[in-house]
Amino acid sequence: MAMKKVTDFLKKVFSGFFKNKKDIKLGFYGPPNAGKTSLANRICKDFTGEEIGSVSKVPHETRNVQFKEKVEISYKGKSMTFKMIDTPGIATRVDYEDFLKYKVNKKEAKARAKEATQGIIESIKWLDDMDIVVIVLDATENPYNQVNMTIIGNLVAREIPVLIVANKSDLRKASTKKIEEAFPEYKVVGMSAKYGKNLDEFYEEVFKLSKKSK
Amino acid sequence: MGKKNDLKQHKIKGFSIRFIPYSEIKYLTSTERIKKILDIIFQNYIIILQGRLRSEEETRLIEDTMAMIGHVKSFKGIELAVIGTEERMGTIDKWKNKIVMSLAGGDLGAVTIIGPASIVKEIKRDPKKIELMLNK
After folding, report:
1. Which residues pair with A82 in a beta bridge?
2. Nearest Cα to A85, choosing from A33, A25, A174, A18?
3. Chain B residues within 8 A of A154 when measuring between CB atoms
């Protein structure tokens, strides 16, 4: 009996030693059209040569959670492997008529709206599975949007480390400062996913964040 | 004639506001809270709720709202905004506030505004004020 206990203990210790650490699940969250897929594409293209999804000016282009496994990010001699998870933008309203402005016909607009609502539900369900989360915000928009607050509140409740990206910093109206003021407890990285501006600081912060993941 | 048209353009349709004191939802389960809120929203009321929902209830409200779009006639979703008491507080004050909140059973100093998207176009928010923009 005592012998069995000892062997069980040793098994536990050694399996812990040799167990491969799973890839870090990195989620991209935020409101629609903030540039989540653009940023995820930029990273995936740089390190795997492939993109994760399509981007468009029409809101709710991403209507399903998209993945890219085994993305090994190397930065300043360090390397980490991630599972990238790009999520549909979260909103509190979806009106098919909003899509008509983008020359989408009524039938397509209705289908898009239906898929968008399902995508939002899927995004929320995935919150529980993330190791770290990058909240992508459009730096030209008002950051005091309740959806942003709600997502962050949920991540805090789940003890999931958060990094905020103030995207579209190449645009004249963009203000990283406004986002920093709205979220003083979080690190905010101002960048442009479209032009790859300030990616170094982004990678640096993602590596720091990964160390905080459970 | 021109004057008449101008008046027509600026005519605001009527809307109703329902105030819900925190005591009305305090002892409800999360499911009951969300149901109560959505039932009132479906009647085209703008809700002013004393206090705020828990963060997981806010996401649940968004999920249930999304599930109802397409199932409830002309329902396009909601607009939601919360002004909490913790904004602009220092760390010590935040801790003090947390103790008060746990004794009171919620953040009673907060105000939550929820309106149907068919009536409320946008809720513009900055740390200190909320502006309700209505659909014409």
Report:
1. A24, A71
2. A25
3. 55-56, 58-59
Contact A117 B80 (CB under 8 A): no
Rounded to the nearest angstrom, the minimum Cα separation between A118 and chain B is: 7
Q: Which of B77, B123, B127 sits opposite A94 (nearest CB)?
A: B77
Q: How far apart are CA A13 and CA B133, in angstroms?
A: 61
Tally C-beta pairs within 8 A across A and B. 72
Strand segments (E) across chain B: 16-20, 45-50, 78-83, 111-116, 120-125, 130-134
The pLDDT tens digits of the residues spanning A186-211 come to: 999 999 999 999 999 999 999 999 98
Show residues of chain B in contact with A149, CB under 8 Å: 82
Task: Say yes or no: B65 contacts chain A, CB-CB below 8 A.
Answer: yes
Domain count, chain A: 1
Within 8 A of A157 by CB-CB distance, chain B residues are 55-56
What pLDDT is stored for residue B1 in this prediction? Answer: 42
Is A152 within 8 Å of A187 (Cβ atoms)?
Answer: no
Residue from the list A92, A142, A154 with its beta carbon closest to the beta carbon of B65:
A92
> Is the residue at A160 inside a domain?
yes
**Is residue B86 assigned to a domain?**
yes
Report the CATH number at residue A187: 3.40.50.300
What is the complex's ipTM, to 2 decimals? 0.86
**Which residues in chain A are contacts of B117 at CB distance < 8 A?**
92-93, 95
Answer whether residue B3 is part of any domain: no
Residue A137 CB: number of other CB atoms within 10 A? 27
pLDDT at position A12 is: 54
In a domain, A1, yes or no: no
Whether A183 is in a domain gets the answer yes
Instruction: Return mean pLDDT, chain A.
Output: 90
Q: Which domain holds residue B64?
A: 14-134
